[in-house]
Amino acid sequence: GQSSPGECKLRRPFSCASKGKRGRVRREMSASNLFPSLSIGGSAGGSAGGGGGVRGWTSTTSVSASGKRIQKEMQDFNADPPPECSAGPKGDNIYHWVSTLVGPQGSPYQGGVFFLDITFPNDYPFKPPKVLFKTRIYHCNVDAAGNVGLEILKDSWSPALTISKVLLAIRSLFTSPDPYNPIVPNIARMYLTDTVKHDEIAAEWTVRFAR
């Protein structure tokens, strides 16, 4: 009726193992062996001295830095908001904002409230935010999908710019469209050839979609 050494090994491997064996098991289960990519020496393809591992951590750091920058801009925006503008994170995601712009008095967009969707990239402010109009608008610099034809959101972007300056630039398009760099050419032609008719249609769209 006695258990053989083999049975003991199957039933209670650690109670029968020697201290040395337990130590070896612990070493084999250490983080660096289970997850070799976390080791300081770098992962496959990394250069000597930890190139692969360093690159992996850099992206995490840059996301953190962009988050701090966005938080700072949010504080500055709340302390001194641009006229007729509001903006802030949608829920808990600091990289996704919702903004509203009020159509300026004296423009065909007056009385309208226009909603915008703002998405910050992980490498912000080195890349511009993506801004989309969620409210339909009759404008030569805003297409049917809500894309905004503004140079500072593309090739003229600078890390020195802020979301406050972006919203001010977009709002200035309400009173000063740029028909010579349009993303909706037929609206630009209407603006240049028959401004009165253009403004009538823009005002109709404002009543229909932005109120």
Automatic annotation (TrEMBL):
It holds the Pfam family UQ_con. Residues 65-211 form the UBC core domain. Residues 42-55 have a biased composition (Gly residues). Transmembrane segments: none annotated. Residues 1-65 are annotated as: Disordered. It comes from the Eukaryota. This is Constitutive photomorphogenesis protein 10. The gene is COP10.
